[in-house]
Write a structure and sequence with these properties.
Elements lengths: L4 H8 L3 H9 L5 E3 L2 E3 L2 H10 L20 H5 L3 E5 L4 H10 L8 H15 L3 E2 L2 E2 L2 E2 L11 E11 L9 E8 L3 H14 L3 H8 L4 H10 L2
């Protein structure tokens, strides 16, 4: 819990009174010594689900920005026609496509991604963004990202307004990497041209070209 109300307001570019109102509406916060505190990851995930820009949370490790570019992470990791009749089956299918080398890593990843979905929905306008930051299933310091276009649309939760058709999966080795990649994904999903490419399941080369054109 490393942020106060003033810091959260600065990051989300709103007033402190807006932050106080959002707390009443479900913004994750903890009361410590009579003051609200916020976890950076929880704040970013909440903002992402509500399409609220949080670019100030993005900070790749010094000198490693190129490694955290989505086009670099996604090259060769965009998949089409991925099966899965329900949410659990989808998590298993997308985990099986993660480029993890150690025996048993994919099963661990599937369970970690499922646990994240149980904690709270990651779905935004038909796109699920399951993610885990467990170093136990990660063999290097480089994050992993995949985009999976599902063979059939799947309702993840009864309250969903639309079924999930795309799953963007993230596996990161640290909280800092997690924040950097998730913030970049959130920013990218605000790009209308990239969203249009996703909506028509554009070929990998078109998706990567658009990502390269983004700041």
């Amino acid at each position: 819990m490393d942020l106060g109300i003033s810091e959260a307001a600065r990051i989300l570019e709103v007033s402190e009174s807006t932050i106080s109102r959002w707390i009443e509406d479900g913004l994750p916060a903890f009361m410590i010594n009579g003051r609200y505190r916020f976890n950076r990851v929880d704040l970013l995930e909440w903002a992402t689900r509500r399409k609220i820009p949080a670019a100030a949370l993005y900070q790749a490790p010094q000198g490693q920005d190129a490694l955290y570019r989505l086009e670099a992470l996604l090259e060769g990791n965009i998949h089409y026609g991925v099966p899965g009749g329900d949410k659990k089956a989808v998590m298993t299918a997308v985990a099986d496509l993660l480029p993890l080398a150690k025996p048993g890593d994919k099963a661990l990843a599937a369970q970690a991604l499922w646990n994240r979905e149980v904690k709270g929905s990651t779905v935004i306008d038909g796109i699920a963004i399951p993610h885990t930051r467990s170093p136990l299933i990660f063999g290097s310091a480089r994050p992993i990202a995949t985009i999976c276009f599902l063979k059939d649309k799947v309702f993840f939760d009864p309250g969903d307004k639309a079924p999930v058709r795309i799953v963007c999966t993230l596996v990161t080795p640290s909280i800092r990497a997690h924040l950097a990649i998730l913030a970049r994904v959130a920013s990218t999903l605000h790009d209308k041209e990239f969203r249009a490419l996703l909506d028509r399941a554009a070929p990998e080369e078109e998706l990567l070209a658009r990502l390269k054109a983004l700041p």
